TrEMBL record:
Gene assigned in the entry: mscL
Membrane topology: Multi-pass membrane protein
Subcellular location: Cell membrane
Source domain of life: Bacteria
Organism of this sequence: Peptacetobacter hiranonis (strain DSM 13275 / JCM 10541 / KCTC 15199 / TO-931)
Main location: membrane
NCBIfam families found in the cross-reference section: mscL (TIGR00220)
Official protein name in the record: Large-conductance mechanosensitive channel
Annotated keywords: Cell membrane, Ion channel, Ion transport, Membrane, Transmembrane, Transmembrane helix, Transport
Mitochondrion in keyword set: no
Subunit relationships: Homopentamer.
Residue ranges of coiled coil: none
Length: 139
């Protein structure tokens, strides 16, 4: 039992599990923001031009049984807004990481060499070496 608790503790304390947990919590909060944006801003604006609120759209099938297709339209709008925002965030992050990769590559190209080739035995040695460690020649 102790071994299982120890393994569980190691699993929970890994960085990627914690990152995933933070992402899920932020995603839940972001969903609330998008839902509020659609319900409180987008739907009333569309209601001004269309003269209706999506939440009120329903089809009475039989008696009290209704098909609330307005709620479905609202959910589709929520999804499209969330997808657009995530697309923009991922596009920004990809652009930013691409610039970092180019910057690192430029830094690597402009660094001074740290090794040289021994003119006698042709092995790679430190650039500040005065004697080759392989053939013991004076450089």
């Amino acid at each position: 039992m102790k071994q299982m608790l120890k393994e569980f503790k190691e699993f929970i304390s890994r960085g990627n599990v914690m990152d995933m947990a933070v992402g899920i919590i932020i995603g839940g909060a972001f969903t609330g923001i998008v839902n509020s944006f659609v319900n409180d801003i987008i739907n009333p604006i569309i209601g001004i031009f269309g003269g209706m609120n999506f939440s009120d759209l329903k089809w009475n099938i039989v008696g009290d049984v209704t098909l609330n297709y307005g709620s479905f339209i609202t959910a589709v709008i929520n999804f499209l807004i969330m997808a657009a925002v995530l697309f923009a965030i991922i596009k920004f992050m990809n652009r930013f990481s691409a610039k970092l990769v180019v910057k690192k590559k430029d830094e690597e190209e402009h660094t001074e060499p740290t090794t040289k080739i021994c003119p006698f035995c042709k092995t790679e040695i430190a650039i500040d070496a005065t004697r080759c460690p392989h053939c013991t020649s004076n450089l």
